[in-house]
Amino acid sequence: MKYVMNHEGKPHRKFFEDICAIPHGSYNEKGISDYLVQFAEERGLSFYRDELWNVLIKKAGSPGYEKHPPVMLQAHTDMVCVKRPESDFNFETDSLQLFVEDGWLQAKDTTLGADCGHGVAYMLAILDDPELAHPPLEAFFSVQEEVGIGGPNFFDYSKVQAKKLINFDIFDEGLSWISTTSVKGGDFLRKVALEPTFRPMYQLHVGGGTGGHAALDIGNDQANAIRIAARFLRKVMKEIHINLASIDGGTARNNIPGECRIVFSCNSFFVQRLKEIAQELEQEIKREYAGTDPNLYLKFGEGPYLEKVLADASTRSVVSFLLQLPTGVHMRRFMSNGLALIVPKGQPGDGLVTTSRNLGVVKLAGDQLTVGYMFRSMLDSQITEMMDQTMLLAEAFGASWDQVFDYRGHTYRESDPLHTLWNQVYKEATGQEVRGVAAHVGTDVGTIVQHIPGMDVMTIGPNTLDIHKPGERMEVASFDRTYDYVKTILSRL
User: Fold this and answer.
1) Same domain, yes or no, for 235 and 193?
2) Residue 347 has pLDDT above 60, yes or no
3) What's the mean pLDDT when you consider all of the chain?
4) How many CA atoms lie within 13 A of 321 on its CB side?
5) pLDDT at residue 335 greater than cutoff 60
6) Is the previous residue joined to 116 through a cis bond, with omega within 30 degrees of 0?
7) Per-residue pLDDT reduced to its tens digit, 384-416
8) Given CB 3.0 to 4.6 Å as the disulfide criterion, which of 157, 210, 354, 462 pairs with 479?
9) Residue 213, domain member (yes or no)
10) Shared-domain flag, residues 54 and 136
């Protein structure tokens, strides 16, 4: 792999580029897990790896720090794998193609995986540094965070002694989470009735959506490509008899879908009207989402021939379900438990999203419709209410719920010693206070604290933009500064 950053005196840069050479999407973390084990073996560090590929690497305290209380460092090794539609990049086999532009590190046509690759790089650089002053370290490299905090749910915490946790899953320099959300995610499943057809096939591609992180970006009220595809089908069905044959949209439950493709059968007599409806809807959505999704488009054309389509009743039911399934913000707030909720960069200034739902994925395979979905809230009562509402709707359309993950949020205490130290270090370096934010995100922290009650927790990370979408980028100077903050913090523990 060709390196694109100068690594002299910056070991975290090299480690970040090294891990970008290893495919490491969710459920595909074995390669990076092997790399971590080899790293530990080569340096004589003790390690533990479980069958999910979580890895824990331990390092003794530096001279003078041997008897200090141990500290856990934690980041997840999996990344969200999204590429531009025209890209032939293969996340299962290819190394990310990195480049630096205007001081920001990016990957050509794909996500960068700075979420949470910057933390993995920091941890490796710390473990590799023989001169760094630090207490005993327990570096927890978790898996499957992006698909529901899978790894930490099943980790053997008897291997851990630390009661202090430095978590790296945050993307704004000088920011620290005060509160994170609880999340439930899974799939709505529905069998559909199929029948043969001899009518021509047509397709519609909804593309160009901004997409992005279903927690960080949900408050922007962006377009959902799956919903737009369902909207097109509903408009057509008011005038023309069609049968749905295929639908494929979105990449992950935790992402706002920017792309969706549908194939349907229809009498060729109506082709011109179908084109007109697509053009009319495209103009509508361009006006509606001009501020959030300026590149949205609808592309209509002939489709691939498929032998079977959904029967009339199944077509109507699927379209109705996708059109009525709620997605987006459910509640915003300015205050929660007496804390002012500070809105992170890039979020609208009209209050922090506290509760949301995301229609993230839809796929039709044979007679099985799968709809990937996520509930998220700072308030467990709101998740319960949303699930009750949505389950009743699903039942009405004959869909069942298959829950895949359920993880807890975490409320931090700004008075915790780690947070106080982080604030002190940041103020010395910048003259500014660390900004505490109650955020509409979920991280591994809530799950870890469930298993190790009473953990003293802080979060720290560099400036990163456009997370979970092509164009994701990390500011190199902030990447460097934040590593220096971490080293200073460790030297004072």
Assistant:
1) yes
2) no
3) 93
4) 27
5) no
6) yes
7) 999 999 999 999 999 999 999 888 888 877 678
8) 462
9) yes
10) yes
Are 442 and 409 in contact by the 8 Å Cβ rule? The answer is: yes
pLDDT for position 337: 44
Q: Apex CA 118: angle with CA 94 and CA 453, to 5°?
A: 120
CB 39 within 8 A of CB 33: no
316 and 204 in one domain? yes
DSSP assignment of 368-392: EEEEEEEEEES-HHHHHHHHHHHHH
- Count of domains forming the chain: 2
CB count in 10 Å sphere of residue 424: 15
pLDDT of 3-60, one tens digit each?
999 999 999 999 999 999 999 999 999 999 999 999 999 999 999 999 999 999 999 9
In whole angstroms, give the CA distance from residue 231 to residue 38: 51
Last residue of a domain, one of 407, 429, 446: 407
Token pair 């190394």: residue? 95
| 279 and 321, same domain (yes or no) | yes
Tell me the two tokens of residue 210.
């901004």
* Torsion angle of the four alpha carbons 22, 252, 466, 424, in this order, in degrees rounded to the nearest 10: -80
The token duo for 71 is 């500290």
Residue finishing a domain among 382, 407, 432: 407
Greater model confidence, 416 or 444: 444
- The secondary structure of residue 25, as a DSSP letter, is B
452 lies in the same domain as 387: no
Question: Residue 375: what are its φ and ψ, rounded to 5°?
Answer: -110, 135
Angle at 228 between CA 82 and CA 237, to 5 degrees: 140
Highest-scoring range by mean pLDDT, 113-127, 211-225, 436-450: 113-127
Quote the CA–CA distance of 27 and 354 in Å, as a whole number.
29
Which residue do the tokens 């947070």 mark? 419
| Domain extent for 444 | 11-179+410-491
